[in-house]
Amino acid sequence: MHDLIMFLRENGIQATPQRLAVATVVLGSRTHPTADNVWQKVRKICPTASRATVYNTLNLFIEKKLVKPQFLREGTVVFDSLAGPHHHFIDEATGRIYDVPWDAVKVRLDESLEAFDIHAYQVVMRGRRRRNAPKN
Amino acid sequence: MHDLIMFLRENGIQATPQRLAVATVVLGSRTHPTADNVWQKVRKICPTASRATVYNTLNLFIEKKLVKPQFLREGTVVFDSLAGPHHHFIDEATGRIYDVPWDAVKVRLDESLEAFDIHAYQVVMRGRRRRNAPKN
DNA sequence: GTTCGTGCAAACGGTTTGCAACAAT
DNA sequence: ATTGTTGCAAACCGTTTGCACGAAC
Asked: What is the pTM (predicted TM-score) of this model?
């Protein structure tokens, strides 16, 4: 898409087929893919893309704040397609990670926390998703 | 200590010099050491302890619920000496992780979360610790 | 023609595993 | 004798890096 090229350019990123593929996969995804997940999908769109380029591109996107890395799992980083702050729920049975809307959790920080200058926070929940649960 | 041996035995763990060293280091620590941090300290107490044994022992302790692994950082797990639930604050400048008492943060979960059967949650905060901050 | 992006393979760092020696029961 | 524990080295897996080629300005 031409507007995707524009979008990248606006963020100081020169568009290339590989980067467009990574952007398509990672920006248009409600999931929380690992770098390798991204690579698997990217190769289908752009078979020449190497693992190194995918990693480099993801790091570039992090630097340019197009995606946010999350440390929610052992051993690997997952990428957040980033549309405003939100919380996370991790299904302990499947390992799947769900976004939880910001307003679904109310957090009140005690005064005792004045020792910390808190720039950001998130609630990380673990458990099991109920069987007949609605979308997301 | 004899009571430490007892404690391990109560948890179905056969005491050995290596395991006692790991227990001493990891259970009696307010910090959040990585496996390698633990190894460094353990070798001073028990020079024969190998890296593999420290890793194996830590995994054993996780399995027996004596410590809890936390995924708060890229690339490495840190271990929580585990005395009841609490939250975490990560100093973005130093990387240091601080325990935040459970009551210092009040969390109210919305009804919309009924889709999830939440077993546990924690708040992860990031920012900078203030210079003249009190203990912990 | 200099800069930037890429692919490949090698290197890297944290962690696990196979195996042979060794206690402990 | 069987079972469990250890040390070592090698394997492993996710990620980064060095380098030479190629495309873009």
From this structure: 0.90
